Q: What sequence folds into this?
């Protein structure tokens, strides 16, 4: 592993949390969760399953 790829990996780990007990990005989880809910609701209504 080169130094460049190691720094990219470390940066990616900082940007994307693992959801562990020390991960403090709860607002991001809420936003992504509600976005998923809205997208699924839009899909369900467009397909006609509702």
A:
């Amino acid at each position: 592993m080169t130094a460049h790829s190691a720094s990219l990996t470390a940066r990616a780990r900082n940007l994307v949390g693992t959801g562990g007990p020390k991960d403090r990005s709860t607002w991001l989880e809420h936003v992504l969760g509600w976005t998923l809910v809205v997208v699924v609701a839009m899909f369900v209504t467009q397909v006609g399953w509702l």
